[in-house]
Amino acid sequence: MGGGNGQKSKMARERNIEKQKAAKGSQLESNKKAMTIQCKVCMQTFICTTTEVKCREHAEAKHAKSDVYACFPHLKNDACKKLISYSTRKHLTRLSLFFLFLYAPSFAVYLPSKKMARLYPLALFLSFLLTISPSLSTNSEGNALHALRSRLSDSTNVLQSWDPTLVNPCTWFHVTCDSSNHVTRLDLGNSNISGTLGPELGELRHLKYLELYRNDIGGKIPTELGNLKNLVSMDMYGNRFEGEIPKSFAKLKSLRFLRLNNNKLSGSIPRELTTLKDLKVFDVSNNDLCGTIPVDGPFASFPMESFENNKLNGPELKGLVPYDFGC
Amino acid sequence: MSLLQKLVSMFLLFFLLLMCIIPSFFAFPPNPSATSFGAAKYVAAEGNKESEALLKWKASLDDNHSQSVLSSWVGSSPCRWLGITCDNSGRVADFSLPHFGLRGTIHSFSFSSFPNLLTLILWNNSLYGTIPSHISNLTKITQLDLSDNHFTGNIPLEIGSLQSLSNLDLSYNNLIGRIPFSIGNLRNLSLLYLWENKLSGSIPSSIGNMTMLTRLDLSTNNLSASVPREIGQLESLVGLSLSFNNLHGSLPPEMNNLTHLEILQLFTNNFTGHLPRDLCLGGLLVNFSAGYNHFSGPIPKSLRNCTSLFRFRLDWNQLTGNISEDFGLYPNLNYVDLSHNYLYGELTWKWGGFHNLASLKLSNNNISGEIPSELGKATGLQMIDLSSNLLKGTVPKELGQLKALYNLTLHNNYLFGVIPFEIQMLSQLRALNLASNNLGGSIPKKLGQCSNLLQLNLSHNKFIGSIPSEIGSLHFLGDLDLSGNLLAGEIPSQIGQLKQLETMNLSHNKLSGLIPTAFVDLVSLTAVDISYNELEGPIPKIKGFNEAPFEAFMNNSGLCGNASGLKPCTLLTSSSKVAKRKSNKIVILILVPLLGILLLLPIMVGCLYFPNRKRRERISCLGERQSPHGFVVCGHEEEILHEKIIQATNNFNFNNCIGKG
């Protein structure tokens, strides 16, 4: 891109055109259609994040005589393209990582169907491909947020403005970007959201504020959140998160506020968090945590209220051999 | 080896061979469409040619992954292979392998072997190299999609010979050079996507020959020069995107002919001149984005009746004109951003008709008049930014009806009056910025009901009274700015409840008293400014205060503490301060009566002294004369007086007596 136009650095780009179908009617309808893939043969619709695999499965299951593209010519659709590529890539990465440790013959044991058989060798090598693949498209942050949206249930439509056809998510409500159009804040506290989080949040490399408090979000906290090097504040309190506090949070070197209280988190408080020098506020009260409370680094100054209502065994006892009771 | 062993090994070998052969019978059933042996043979021969070409290409692919993807590509009939579909004559008609991570080039692809190929779809793979010129051998091709790969080099001139093409998508690659003039030969083309490449040069004028074109996207390239007039010939155009290029000059007036446009995106270029006058004359325009250019002149009048508009962005231009002139009804309008222009006029739109409007951004213009109360009827509004305009009048209470409003930004205007208490109804409000206006009165207590508030900026107004303690119930508040007002009284201790407060600016007010001890609970505070007040006493021992520079505390009545520029608060200092105050009081209590006494003393003395002097004078009167009636008169002067009295009263004649006491 040439040009020294200073305004360009503050741009919001919109690439709506690929979404436009020949459909008449208001943009609203077109947008909704843009978010769906419709099988042209039977007119059944799938949301845009349906992986191509599912489209193929549908086509092969229901319309064996037609090929996938008779059913889904819109697989070419740009946003769908990117979304499919994104989610399938991630889907396959997980698979490939799992199968990396298996011997090839054992694939056969796990085949749910012959059709899926094609994918698994693919998956194995896709992970390598991904590590050397070029950077994601310029709308990777928008893709990530849209993938997040597909996991969440949003009863009050706070995410209605999250239009994946736009070139970046900077005009989406509750999303704040910096001057280079990177997402810096996600303010979805108190928003009546349920569902789960996914690894895609870790893609928002410039994120500083992750505010998801007081919703109804469940499932595990993705370890990929540890990739958010610039994160200053993570407020996920007042949800239904379960599982452990990821050890990867030790990578959040800029973190100042970490509030995970009032969830259903279990396991121990990772010792690694004591390396977070800037951590000022740490609240894990009202969970199911066990083990001992770290006392090093910033943990020396956290009040006891930050840890209450857990199954913790009190502060870590320091001695020649630091030990903890485990859980 | 014994005979038995030999037999067993031979049997195993035979069995293995059988296992290999039998599946191939199932994998490759005879072609059902073959009608005669001769035809089948022909098909087989041609099919062989095609299968050979495909296998040759498969072999040229780089990695094992690609090989395994195409593991079904064995044998001589490609029609059942992954991604291949044949037509009724058994020739390959569709070659579609999108999104499989294939890595390699298409140089070795023998395009001439596929005269019947109708679609070639290879988007989202890892193909690289150039697009070979012999792609022109695909004479019947209708859909060519190579997008989202790593193709480099120029678009071959020969692409113009693919006369049957209706969809050409080469987007999201690394293609360089000019768009070939020959592209105009694609008379049947309805979709041309070249977006997100590194194409340069101008848009060829031959583009006007592609009269079937409905979708044209050349965005995100290095295209320069101006838009050719020939673009006006594309009357079927439904979507046009030229955004994010280096295009300059004015838009040709021929663009007014594009009456079927639903999407027009021109943003981030160097366009100058006026916007097309007859935009949306066909009443179909849904998305119009031309921001970040140098467009001047007015918003086209034809847009005023453009009821189909959904998204309307002209921000960051030099547009002028009066926005109030009948701006009509926009029942579908969802997002409008006209900020950073030179628009004037008033907000006299028919807001009740804007059912779908969620985002209204008109900041940084010259818009005058008042914020109309009808704005409260656009109940879908979630974001309002009218900042940096010339708006006057009050903040209408009807804004309280906007239940979905999460951001209200009105700073830098001339608004006056009070904050209406209806603001408490905005339960979704996350950001409220009323800074730099002439608002007055006190900060309403009801503001505490906006429990979702994250940012509150009321700075540089004329708010009086004290900071309401209800601010302390805004539990999620992260940024608080009340600076530059006339706020007085003490800071309420409830402010200490704001556990998520990160920045607090209370500077340039008349706040007095001590900083509440509860401020020690402001655990999240990182930046604070309380300068230019009348505060005194110790600062709380928290990071936000301890690390603040002297400018954050200067010009107060006597703050002390462990921060730069402040005197340390020793125990003595603090108690002596209190004692000093007390002793001041004592001093006053003592001094005043003392002074009073001192002042009164001479008077008292004088009072006492003067009567004494008179007595003394009487005593020193030479010769007392007692008149017959008993009063004493003495002194020289008194003698003369005495004479006069005798004379006047006729020697105290009874007749002159007016009374006896």
Automatic annotation (TrEMBL), chain A:
Q: Where is the composition biased (Basic and acidic residues)?
A: 11-21
Q: Does the keyword Transmembrane helix apply?
A: yes
For the region Disordered, what residue ranges are annotated? 1-29
Keyword Isomerase attached: no
Q: Where is the signal peptide?
A: none
Q: Provide this UniProt record's keywords sorted from A to Z.
A: Leucine-rich repeat, Membrane, Repeat, Signal, Transmembrane, Transmembrane helix
Q: Which residues cross the membrane?
A: 92-111
**Gene3D superfamilies the UniProt entry points to:** At2g23090-like, Ribonuclease Inhibitor
Q: Which Pfam families match?
A: LRR_14, LRRNT_2, SERF-like_N, zf-met2
Query: Which residues belong to any copy of the Leucine-rich repeat-containing N-terminal plant-type domain?
Result: 139-178
Residues folding into a coiled coil are none
The At2g23090-like zinc-binding domain sits at 38-75
Superkingdom, taxonomy of origin: Eukaryota
Q: Disease resistance R13L4/SHOC-2-like LRR domain location, by residue?
A: 198-286
Every copy of the Small EDRK-rich factor-like N-terminal domain together lies at 3-35
* Protein name (Swiss-Prot/TrEMBL): Somatic embryogenesis receptor kinase 1-like
What species was this sequence derived from?
Answer: Populus euphratica (Euphrates poplar)
> What gene codes for this chain?
LOC105129831
UniProtKB/TrEMBL annotation, chain B:
Glycosyltransferase keyword on record? no
Q: Where is the signal peptide?
A: 1-27
Q: Which GO terms describe its biological process?
A: post-embryonic development
What is the protein name stated in its UniProt record?
Answer: Probable leucine-rich repeat receptor-like protein kinase At1g35710
Q: Which UniProt keywords apply?
A: Cell wall, Glycoprotein, Leucine-rich repeat, Membrane, Repeat, Secreted, Signal, Transmembrane, Transmembrane helix
User: Per UniProt, what is the membrane topology?
Assistant: Single-pass membrane protein
What InterPro entries does its record include?
Leu-rich_rpt, Leu-rich_rpt_typical-subtyp, LRR_dom_sf, LRR_N_plant-typ, LRR_R13L4/SHOC2-like, Plant_receptor-like_S/T_kinase
Q: Which PANTHER family match?
A: MDIS1-INTERACTING RECEPTOR LIKE KINASE 2-LIKE, OS04G0122200 PROTEIN
Taxonomy, top ranks, is:
Eukaryota, Viridiplantae, Streptophyta, Embryophyta, Tracheophyta
Alphabetical list of SMART domains matching this protein: LRR_TYP
Q: Where is the Disease resistance R13L4/SHOC-2-like LRR domain?
A: 109-246
What is the gene name? LOC105111921
Q: Where in the cell is it found?
A: Membrane; Secreted, Cell wall
Per the UniProt record, which residue ranges are transmembrane? 586-610
Gene Ontology CC: one annotated term = membrane
- Tagged with keyword Cytoplasm: no
Pfam families for the chain:
LRR_1 (PF00560), LRR_14 (PF23598), LRR_8 (PF13855), LRRNT_2 (PF08263)
